[in-house]
Structure formats: C-alpha cells, structure tokens
C-alpha cells in the first residue's frame, strides 16, 4: 500500500485494535508480532506486506522492545506521529495498569506463590503459542529464497547456542543480501541505513542522585541500549536491579519476570512491576516512561526515511536480509524459552497440545488457551505436586 493511498481504516480502528491486543495479546514479542501480521496484514489488509517488513527491520535495528516498536511503526505508516503516539500508548497501557494492580497485591499479600503455579501452566502454553506464531511468520516472510533460509538458520542456531541476539549479525545479513541482490551505490541514504544502528551502541555514562533519578537513568539505558526482543532486556535488568542497585532480591526479580509472562502485551512491561517494588506508583511510572520513550524516538525519527527509501531495490534487499535474520533470532529465542520452561512431562504435554490445537483450530482465541493452562497449572502445582 502506497503512503499516499487513503487507508481503509481509521485511526480509531487502529487504536481499538491495539487496545485489544494489549489487553488479550499473550505470548511475548514473538507471538505479538505474529498476531500483528496475521490480523493487520493477512486478515484486515490494513498494512501492506512491505510496510510490515520495513517495520520489523527497523524494530530489530533499533534498541528497545520489538513488539512495542513494531506497533509504533505500524501506527506511523498512515497516521504519522499522531498515529505512532496513540497506538504505542494504546498497546502498552492495558498491561501497565495490570502490572500496577499485581504490584499492589504482591506488596500487600507478601509474595506470589499462586502466580508461580499459574506460570507453570501458562509458561508452557506460551511456548506452544509462540512456536505456531514463529512458524507462520517464517513461512510467510522468507518464502523459498535459499539465501534467506541460510541466514535464518545461522541466526536461529546462534541465538539458541549463545542465548542472545547479535545486532551485528543482523546488520551483516542485511548487507549480504543487499550486495547479493542489488550492489549498493554508496550515497548518504545508504550509509545512514547501516551507520545509525552502530552509533546507538555507544556506551552510556553512570547516573547518580535520588532513587527516582537512578530509576530514570537506569531504565533509559535499558530502553536505549538493549537490542532484541522484550526478553533481551531481562539480563540487563538483572545486572542492574539485583546486582548493582540491590533494589530487588533474586526471588523478587524472578517474580517480576513471571508477572511479565502471565500478563498480556509487551514483556518489557515488567519494568513497571520492578519500578513499583522499588519506589511505588511513582517508580512504576518513571521506569515505564524511561524505558519506552527511547524506543518511541528510535522508531519515529528514522521512520520517514524508511518510508521514503524503503521501496528502493537496494534498501528493500537490505530489509529482506534483516527480516530473515530477525525471524531466525526469534526462532532461536523460542528454542531457548522452550529449554527453560519445559521442565517436566506435564509442561511438555501442555506446550505440544497448545501448538497442535492452534494448528488445527486457527481461529481459536489464545486467551481461552491461556486461561485453561493457568487452571491446569494451579491444579498440578497446588493440589497434585
């Protein structure tokens, strides 16, 4: 769909969609980007395949949470900065409010043993959900191109073995396909495409001051200097909030990650829970804003250039390579999550059953599966084990 074409949907329609996705979208970044493709590209046809691929590429090249950045970019496609801003807020707000409520209950009731029981079932079901989402995203986006499949496999294996996503491999994949399909004519636009992500890797300085200022500075770094999906931020958060600042202990941090996984919307919303435990409601709001503002800026600032140059053969080839690499990294992340969450026979059975059910019944709403998995988890952990 060309940028000048009148969109077939209103901004209100898009905002309502992302409010619903932020409320019911379980499964983490892999599932969320899959839902956006399924709903907005395939079913509703509001967003073109090319615009979606450009958004995926930009979201991978820029630091910050993948799903949140993609939502912001898709809001920008036809409704520019206003659309990007309102869509981003609509996507993040539901899960943030849920996290605030859970944070209050956590502090008031002293720990979340019932949450661990829920996560036992939900975590396994999430593996099944993201497996199907990753499969659909892979087959749709890569097609039969052997070069793209090679990149996909390399990134999937690398991510699985190292348990981290490498921005340089993603960039190199884009350059490789660029050289293969459309050798670059070195101009300002082309240089800018590969230079600005590298500049974002510059190290941050150390912040000092009050606790709210420390929260602001630490979570700004988390949003500005951590690449990959929402899950990629977890090691960075652990090093800061547990090891450096000692805001949370080990068990509280594990609970914070569990909160992120059992709530819908972007996984990175766990920063709101951490902020709440550290400094109450003010800490939650500060942590969330500090994390999401950098990714918002890193999406809307280069977006006009993606829109302007995205159809150029060289840039399109670069985006294809980056997209294949990004999807490979996502597939590797699925395997990493499976290794960590499928810890016994019941969790394996829940994950496999979820994948088979979704493969067979393609229109079955994921929240139904999540609810069933939560009940199964509670029964197994609190009454059987």
Please supply descriptive tags for the structure shown above.
385 residues, 16 helices, mainly alpha
List the SSEs and their pairings.
Layout: H1 11-24, H2 28-43, H3 49-61, H4 66-109, H5 113-142, H6 146-162, H7 167-181, H8 188-199, H9 211-225, H10 233-244, H11 250-262, H12 270-300, H13 303-309, H14 313-341, H15 345-360, H16 366-384
Helix pairs in contact: 1-4, 2-4, 2-5, 3-4, 3-14, 4-12, 5-11, 5-14, 5-15, 5-16, 6-7, 6-14, 7-14, 9-10, 9-12, 11-12
User: Helical residue percent?
Assistant: over 70%
* Biggest beta sheet attributes: none
Distance between the termini: 54 Å
Number of strands: 0
Protein described:
The chain has 385 residues and is mainly α. The chain has one domain (11-202, 296-384). Helix content is 79%, strand content 0%. It has 16 helices and no strands. It has helices at 11-24, 28-43, 49-61, 66-109, 113-142, 146-162, 167-181, 188-199, 211-225, 233-244, 250-262, 270-300, 303-309, 313-341, 345-360, 366-384. It is globular and about 60 Å long. Mean pLDDT is 80; it is low at 188-208.
Describe the structure concisely.
Helix content is 79%, strand content 0%. The chain is mostly helical and 385 residues long.
């Amino acid at each position: 769909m060309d940028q000048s074409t009148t969109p077939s949907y209103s901004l209100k329609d898009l905002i309502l969609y992302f409010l619903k996705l932020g409320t019911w979208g379980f499964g983490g970044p892999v599932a969320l980007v899959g839902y956006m493709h399924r709903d907005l590209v395939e079913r509703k046809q509001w967003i073109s395949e090319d615009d979606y691929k450009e958004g995926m590429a930009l979201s991978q090249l820029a630091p910050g949470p993948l799903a949140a950045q993609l939502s912001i970019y898709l809001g920008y496609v036809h409704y520019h900065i206003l659309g990007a801003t309102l869509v981003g807020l609509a996507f993040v707000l539901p899960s943030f409010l849920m996290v605030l409520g859970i944070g209050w209950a956590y502090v008031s009731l002293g720990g979340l043993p019932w949450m661990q029981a829920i996560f036992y079932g939900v975590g396994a079901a999430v593996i099944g959900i993201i497996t199907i989402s990753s499969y659909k995203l892979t087959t749709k986006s890569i097609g039969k191109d052997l070069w793209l499949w090679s990149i996909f496999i390399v990134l999937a294996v690398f991510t699985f073995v190292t348990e981290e996503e490498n921005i340089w491999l993603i960039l190199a994949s884009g350059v490789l396909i660029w050289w293969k399909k459309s050798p670059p004519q070195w101009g300002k636009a082309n240089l800018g495409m590969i230079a600005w992500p590298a500049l974002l890797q510059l190290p941050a300085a150390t912040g000092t001051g009050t606790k709210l200022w420390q929260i602001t500075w630490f979570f700004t770094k988390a949003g500005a200097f951590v690449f990959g999906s929402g899950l990629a931020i977890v090691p960075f958060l652990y090093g800061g909030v547990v090891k450096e600042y000692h805001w949370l202990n080990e068990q509280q941090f594990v609970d914070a990650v569990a909160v992120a996984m059992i709530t819908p919307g972007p996984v990175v919303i766990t920063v709101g829970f951490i902020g709440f435990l550290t400094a109450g409601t003010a800490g939650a709001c500060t942590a969330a804003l500090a994390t999401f503002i950098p990714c918002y800026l890193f999406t809307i600032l280069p977006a006009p250039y993606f829109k302007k140059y995205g159809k150029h053969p060289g840039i399109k080839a670069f985006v294809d390579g980056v997209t294949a690499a990004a999807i490979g990294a996502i597939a590797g992340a699925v395997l990493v999550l499976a290794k960590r969450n499928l810890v016994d026979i019941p969790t394996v059975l829940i994950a496999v059953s979820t994948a088979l059910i979704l493969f067979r019944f393609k229109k079955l709403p994921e929240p139904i599966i999540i609810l069933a998995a939560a009940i199964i988890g509670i029964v197994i952990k609190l009454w059987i084990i």
